[in-house]
């Protein structure tokens, strides 16, 4: 694949991630969007459908993960796919039950924790760590 096409596809992948964020209100059920924009530290939680919110959040995580994996494979070849899948899978296995517990209890003392757990599930933050890590690894291999 020519480099120009590869970088165009990477750019389009990042545009897709940005569009998911931009249209999150229309694409996903998430009554916590407005809740976390306000003074959520002291506020009572809004009414919501627990399972609908949970599965919408997981669907968003999987969509962001798919696009992120596509970007990583384009940038670093298929060698990073297996490791990335393990990392994304472990993150989901750890955070999904924690998220479910936090949204099912919605204790005011845990809103701050819910904010960050939810943030890791709905935003493609892991790609921001993996790109420099894989780049560094690739750079070290070339130096040897």
From TrEMBL:
Name of the protein this chain belongs to: Uncharacterized protein
Organism of provenance: Mesonia oceanica
């Amino acid at each position: 694949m020519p480099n120009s096409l590869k970088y165009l596809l990477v750019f389009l992948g990042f545009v897709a991630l940005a569009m998911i964020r931009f249209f999150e209100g229309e694409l996903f059920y998430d009554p916590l969007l407005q809740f976390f924009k306000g003074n959520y530290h002291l506020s009572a939680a809004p009414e919501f459908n627990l399972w609908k919110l949970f599965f919408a959040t997981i669907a968003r995580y999987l969509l962001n993960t798919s696009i992120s994996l596509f970007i990583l494979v384009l940038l670093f070849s298929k060698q990073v796919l297996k490791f990335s899948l393990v990392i994304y899978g472990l993150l989901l296995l750890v955070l999904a039950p924690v998220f479910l517990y936090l949204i099912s209890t919605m204790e005011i003392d845990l809103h701050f924790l819910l904010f960050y757990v939810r943030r890791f599930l709905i935003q493609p933050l892991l790609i921001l760590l993996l790109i420099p890590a894989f780049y560094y690894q690739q750079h070290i291999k070339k130096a040897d």
